[in-house]
């Protein structure tokens, strides 16, 4: 009971602190839905696949293109609004930089309705998995870099674990997600394209499970995606690592079709091959195309791939970078520790130095997106 009361108190403090910052950062706040279609017959007809979009505008817009933020698995747009210990989030930071900010809840998630008669089954991330992968990896030593994690907020002896008020405030935000990556990516590609059609050219910011969305939206709306910031995108190509060894992302970067050149009729045409040795200690061996095909619709799009020092992605995000290079896609691959930003885990947008990470992203955007 005490832990629950503490979580409520911290959650209330987070809302108050975020609201105070937002008063200075936000000029207008609106919302709308995009995408979706009616399904079912007779009195059982419903709309499914629609995506909730919240739009925040600063008092003075100084940036040419807005930012569209896509959260990862188990999350919602609250990831970008504030931190579980009550500090300003990335949304407010980028508003102060003059960007219009769009925040979405993925279809069938959060404020975007899940329809039992249309959508597939849901899954939830258990509390133990959140502790191990996101908030306290240094306590479990599940991958070599995990011991470097220092940036999760809090100072109790249970920092990053259930029962700590900040952890409880974070875990309270977790929701069910569609279990199928194919269904998720199909729905987001459709709704995301509808969003770009409505708002015009934009910069797409993705995190974790949302990583494929940037590639997929650039594939179907190449002229509308003016930049991609991929924060530890779902990977590595073709097969999971660290968290499992299952085959995944048969299209290399995604679970659904991408446009390749020369064209491919089947994913088998990519002829995935695993490299015999890794690129260095504490790094996994990568999968690559056996016969190189380019990703033409991603070429020319400014792309930043960002990896944190202590995350499980630190062991394999280089594989996603190498895959992009093999596919002819120029990009920037940044390990944050090499920029002096150390100790971060996978949820860097919520950690103690979250605004230092945001400032790095802004510097890159300022130098690379025109």
Structural overview:
By secondary structure, this protein is of the alpha/beta class. It has a single domain (2-39, 47-368), classed as 3-Layer(aba) Sandwich (Rossmann fold), CATH 3.40.50. It has 9 helices and 12 strands. It has helices at residues 2-25, 78-81, 90-96, 127-135, 165-171, 181-199, 211-220, 317-326, 354-368, and strands at residues 28-39, 46-57, 67-70, 101-105, 122-123, 177-178, 202-208, 225-233, 273-274, 287-288, 303-307, 332-335. Strands 1-2-4-3-7-8-11-12 form an 8-stranded mixed β-sheet, with helices on both faces. β11 (303-307), α8 and β12 form a beta-alpha-beta unit. α1 (2-25) runs parallel beside α3 (90-96). The chain starts with a helix and ends with a helix.
Low-confidence stretches: 1-17
Give the CATH H-level superfamily: Alpha/Beta hydrolase fold, catalytic domain
CATH topology: Rossmann fold
Mean pLDDT: 94
Strand residue content: 15-25%
Q: What is the rounded distance between the termini? A: 52 Å
CATH architecture: 3-Layer(aba) Sandwich
Radius of gyration from CA coordinates: 20 Å
> What is the 3D shape?
globular
Could you give the order of strands across the largest sheet? 1-2-4-3-7-8-11-12
Q: SSE order in H/E notation? A: HEEEHHEEHHEHEHEEEEHEH
| Name of the CATH first level | Alpha Beta
**Using DSSP, what is the number of strands?**
12
Q: Name the structural class.
A: alpha/beta
Bin the helical content.
Answer: 25-40%
Number of domains: 1
What's the total helix number? Answer: 9
Largest sheet: 8 strands, mixed
In short:
With 370 residues, the chain is an alpha/beta fold. The chain has helices spanning 2-25, 78-81, 90-96, 127-135, 165-171, 181-199, 211-220, 317-326, 354-368; strands at 28-39, 46-57, 67-70, 101-105, 122-123, 177-178, 202-208, 225-233, 273-274, 287-288, 303-307, 332-335.
């Amino acid at each position: 009971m005490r832990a629950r009361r503490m979580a409520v108190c911290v959650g209330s403090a987070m809302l108050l602190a975020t609201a105070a910052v937002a008063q200075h950062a936000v000029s207008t706040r609106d919302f709308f839905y995009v995408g979706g279609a009616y399904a079912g017959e007779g009195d059982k007809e419903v709309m499914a696949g629609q995506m909730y979009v919240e739009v925040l505008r600063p008092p003075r817009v100084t940036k040419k293109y807005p930012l569209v933020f896509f959260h990862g698995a188990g999350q919602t747009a609250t990831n970008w609004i504030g931190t579980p210990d009550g500090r300003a989030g990335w949304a407010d930071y980028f508003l102060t930089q003059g960007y219009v900010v769009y925040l979405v809840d993925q279809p069938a998630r959060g404020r975007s309705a899940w329809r039992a008669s249309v959508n597939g089954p849901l899954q939830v991330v258990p509390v133990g998995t959140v502790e191990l992968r996101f908030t306290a990896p240094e306590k479990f030593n599940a991958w070599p870099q995990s011991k470097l994690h220092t940036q999760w907020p809090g100072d109790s002896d249970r920092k990053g674990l259930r029962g700590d008020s900040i952890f409880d405030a974070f875990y309270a935000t977790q929701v069910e997600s569609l279990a199928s990556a194919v269904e998720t990516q199909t729905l987001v590609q459709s709704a995301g394209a509808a969003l770009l059609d409505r708002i015009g050219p934009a910069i797409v910011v993705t995190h974790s499970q949302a990583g494929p969305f940037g590639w997929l939206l650039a594939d179907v709306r190449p002229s509308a995606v003016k930049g991609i910031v991929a924060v530890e995108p779902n990977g590595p190509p073709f097969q999971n690592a660290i968290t499992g060894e299952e085959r995944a992302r048969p299209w290399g970067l995604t679970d659904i079709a991408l446009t390749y050149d020369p064209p491919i009729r089947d994913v088998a045409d990519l002829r995935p091959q695993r490299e015999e040795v890794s690129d260095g200690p504490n790094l996994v061996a990568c999968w690559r195309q056996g016969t190189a095909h380019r990703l033409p619709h991603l070429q020319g799009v400014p792309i930043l791939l960002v990896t944190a020092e202590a995350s499980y992605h630190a062991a394999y995000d280089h594989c996603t970078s190498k895959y992009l290079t093999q596919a002819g896609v120029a990009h920037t691959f940044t390990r944050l520790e090499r920029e002096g930003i150390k100790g971060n885990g996978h949820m860097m947008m919520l950690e103690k130095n979250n605004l230092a990470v945001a400032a790095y992203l802004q510097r890159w955007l300022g130098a690379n997106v025109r």
